[in-house]
């Protein structure tokens, strides 16, 4: 990703979140990113298309980062607890990212992939193993409940009502208890150590001829 495109991506996330709408002009985006309007036009088809691209990338990236950050953890209860807290801590560390989720994660189809990655599989595994207590047909409702809990916690953090740590712990405890995890066990998962959210490996650098550059 070029430097100009990276700046436009960061500016677009901020503008979309601030406006609560995808109606951002190319001129607005160029000014916010600190690039020439011609650069924006040359790099982007339209701001609407850029929104869809960003939404899809954000969902895929977060799902992938949660997956690699949970490597070696097989317990679905632990995995679900980590995922919830990863979201809330990242929103605290990257407020524009968090506000983008609050604005669009429920209404925009491209962002609904946030809730269709690891959490679905962890819920299914937990239900099958008896760790969670609900019917298999209730998984969509469970996902909806978790999404609402996460977004509500993010709102509390960004509005300054709760720290990310307290909001994350409460969300985990309430969610786990709601799906059948005993209270003491739910609390233990809520307050356990939270590892770093790992970055994704950078793609290989390519030369102008398309060959992978030597390291």
Automatic annotation (TrEMBL):
Chain segments carrying region Disordered: 191-215
One Pfam family of this chain: TetR_C_40
Stretches assigned to the HTH tetR-type domain: 2-62
Bilayer-spanning residue ranges: none
Location of the DNA-binding region in this protein: 25-44
Molecular function per GO: DNA binding
Domain of life of the source: Bacteria
UniProt key word Zinc: no
InterPro entries per UniProt: Homeodomain-like_sf (IPR009057), HTH-type_Tx_Regulator (IPR050624), HTH_TetR (IPR001647), TetR_C_40 (IPR049513)
Keyword annotations of the record: DNA-binding
Keyword presence, DNA-binding: yes
Protein's recorded name: TetR/AcrR family transcriptional regulator
